[in-house]
Amino acid sequence: RDIAEMEKLLPDMILLAGGTDGGNKDCIIHNARMLAEYGINIPVVVAGNKVALDSIEDIFQEKGIFYRETENVMPRLNVLHVEPAREKIREIFMERITDAKGMHIAQDMINGILMPTPAAVLKAAELLSAGTDREDGLGDLIVVDIGGATTDVHSIADGEPTKPGITLRGLEEPFAKRTVEGDLGMRYSALSLWEASGTRKIRKYLQRDDVNIEEICRHRSDNVDHLPETAEDVIFDEAMAKVAVEMSLERHVGIIETLYTPMGVLFSQTGKDLTQVNCLIGTGGVLVESQNAADILKAGLFDEENPIYLKPQNPRLMLDQQYIFSAMGLLAQD
After folding, report:
1. How far apart are CA 148 and CA 285, in angstroms?
2. Which of 201, 268, 296, 314 has the most Cβ atoms closer than 10 angstroms to its Cβ?
């Protein structure tokens, strides 16, 4: 049943992971067998316990499942190693997805430079942060990309605690991190944005009590080509964008927790501390077209009233005004 439900979501590929290297292999082998017996017709990236690879190869080859192997995303406990899996996903995207969706024609026209937009934006963010041989980069930064279906947040920073006396908990966070919020979008996900945030949060930014927020969000979700035609439309879109920025940053950054112990009060951090990043950069249609882009981005800043979220405190606010981030990522590709 789970596999049937997963297939209904029409994924482009499946990431099969599980177990540290040399650890438990039963779970990932069981899941591989379930996929094979169901006859899943979706590319599978195998990025789990390397001890299980031989068994998984036999299972998939017997059933004719298209798969590719790569390094374990968690080779040791609490150690993430995601770059090889990310690269393998991109390879399959280039090899299979572009052909299936007709994008190979475009690929031939542009000398093979083709990659998913989120990956291109992350690559551009890394380049902008690190700089080049001839020019210094901007240092630690965050990019917020507000789209019709998702809001993506990219952070380039180690995220280590910036204050003394704080201990880190949980998994190590990647230096270049991307999160995709599928329920925070301006059109396709407008209704789910309302469901996730609630009426009061949108109204906080809208500063009006005489509108039916659910109805307007539903209209945008049902009419994804809708463009703002009136001042009221623009104000509502900007309120939605502020909610998307606020909530996506809260989900992306680390949190600080207070622990009361016999030895006194302790503070622990889970995730990345992004309070001291140098720049917060906005991209996406609603930001590029807005006359109030800075106000929208400010919704993602550190909030003294809710200080557990380690959001940026005083970054330089910047805008991808010419919509060039994804193009930067393509040109930065080795």
Report:
1. 9
2. 296
pLDDT single digits (tens) 65-106: 999 999 999 999 878 888 899 889 878 877 765 555 555 555
Judged on CB neighbours under 10 Å (0-12, 13-18, 19+), 187 is: buried
Tens-digit pLDDT profile for residues 204-263: 999 888 899 999 999 999 999 999 999 999 999 999 999 999 999 999 999 999 888 888
Sheet holding 14-16, edge to edge: 14-16, 44-46, 67-69
Confidence of residue 113 (pLDDT cuts 50, 70, 90): low
Question: Radius of gyration (Cα) for the chain, nearest Å?
Answer: 22
Helix (H, G, I), strand (E, B) or coil at 319: strand
Q: Count of CB atoms within 10 A of residue 42's CB?
A: 16
Q: Are residues 85 and 157 in the same domain?
A: no
- For tokens 């989120």, name the residue: 118
**Measured in whole angstroms, how far is the alpha carbon of residue 167 from the centre of its chain?**
25
Domain of 22 in residue numbering reads as 2-114
Buried b (16+ CB within 10 A) or exposed e, 168-186: beeeebbebbbebbebbbb
* CA dihedral sign, ordered 77, 82, 143, 199: negative
How is residue 228 written in tokens?
Answer: 């703002």
Query: What is the four-CA torsion angle of 183, 185, 186, 190, rounded to 10 degrees?
Result: -10
Same domain, 290 and 159: yes
How far apart are alpha carbons 189 and 185 in whole angstroms?
Answer: 4
From residue 201, alpha-carbon distances to 100, 198, 292 in Å are: 41, 6, 19
* 3-class state of residue 29 by DSSP: helix
pLDDT-derived band at 46, boundaries 50, 70, 90 = very high
Does 104 share its domain with 187?
A: no
As given in the structure block, the two tokens for residue 253 are 């950054």
Calpha distance 232→216 (Å, rounded): 11
Residues with Cβ within 8 Å of 57's Cβ and at least 6 positions away in sequence, in order, are 69
Please indicate, yes or no, whether residues 206 and 313 belong to a single structural domain of this protein. yes
